[in-house]
Amino acid sequence: MDRKLLFFDIDGTLLAGGIPGYIPESAIQGLKQAQANGHYLFINSGRTYSFMPEAIKEFPFDGYICGCGTEVIFQGESLFHNRLPDEVRFGLKDILRENRMHGAFEGHSSCFFDDSATLIPPLQGIRDVYATSNTPNAVRNFEDPEMDFDKFVAFSDADSDFDNFLKAIEQYFTCVQREPMGDYHFNELIPKNCSKATGIDFMTKHLGASLDDCYVFGDSANDLSMLQHVKNSIAMGNAYPDVLGKTSYVTTRVDRDGIYLALKHFHLI
């Protein structure tokens, strides 16, 4: 198969400059050239579709693997969308509250917040981003009778019982990223049957391709499932320390032509 499948994380990989961020001009040129050469371009992100930055939605990607593999979209059609059991979706807020955790539930078109308590600063930041999106009803609350989400983020602090929280959800969720954030720890949690790697598997099967046809670009811990899943894996020069050394190639920083140079290195452009 001459046509290759290229999968890109967003933050720190395609986007520079923090939030909302921008795609460097050299990356845009490289992406356009790779697409003109016949290759498929995919976003493979921890973000659900509603949380995709406008800079990403403005580029004509062939598809999106959203929410760490919880949804797969190809040429505008949702081919796969994982659905959590009702008891999990509606019971999770109680588990968060019992363990003094703070969270946001991310769905395809909405993000749900706990309006019964004052939002901590990092959650308020997430809410503000959703509130300024062009998606109708992007911000909703935990008591919504139609609450439907794909994955979630949770913040713990000195008062949280994080270990007990993990035990309470371990049957259904995996914590794919945990890192300090000021007075809190940021935790990203996804359904056990989903990952960025399962999204790649779904797409390769759909297109009749193989993992050898895939090239994966990432920079953070939640990218490891896909970076270690294919042989052609690229870490950005600004990648986390636990990512560097676990890929087949390390390019330069995202804001130092990293995408363009990696595409050249692998003769994709």
How would you describe the overall organization of this protein?
- The protein is of the alpha/beta class and 269 residues long.
- It folds into two domains: 5-81 and 194-265, 3-Layer(aba) Sandwich (Rossmann fold), CATH 3.40.50.1000; 86-191, Hypothetical Protein, Haloacid Dehalogenase-like Hydrolase, Chain: A, domain 2 (2-Layer Sandwich).
- The protein has helices spanning 25-36, 54-57, 86-98, 121-131, 162-169, 196-207, 224-227, 258-265; strands at residues 5-8, 40-44, 63-66, 71-74, 77-81, 102-106, 111-113, 139-141, 151-156, 173-181, 184-191, 214-218, 233-235, 249-250.
- It has an eight-stranded mixed sheet. Strands 8-7-6-9-11-10 form a six-stranded mixed sheet, sandwiched between helices.
- α1 packs parallel to α8 (258-265).
- The longest helix is centred in the middle third of the chain and has 13 residues, at 86-98.
- The mean pLDDT is 95.
Gap from first CA to last CA: 16 Å
Rg calculated over all Cα atoms: 18 Å
Write the CATH architecture name of the largest domain.
Answer: 3-Layer(aba) Sandwich
- Trace the largest sheet across and list its strands: 5-4-3-2-1-12-13-14
Which structural class do you get from the secondary structure elements? Answer: alpha/beta
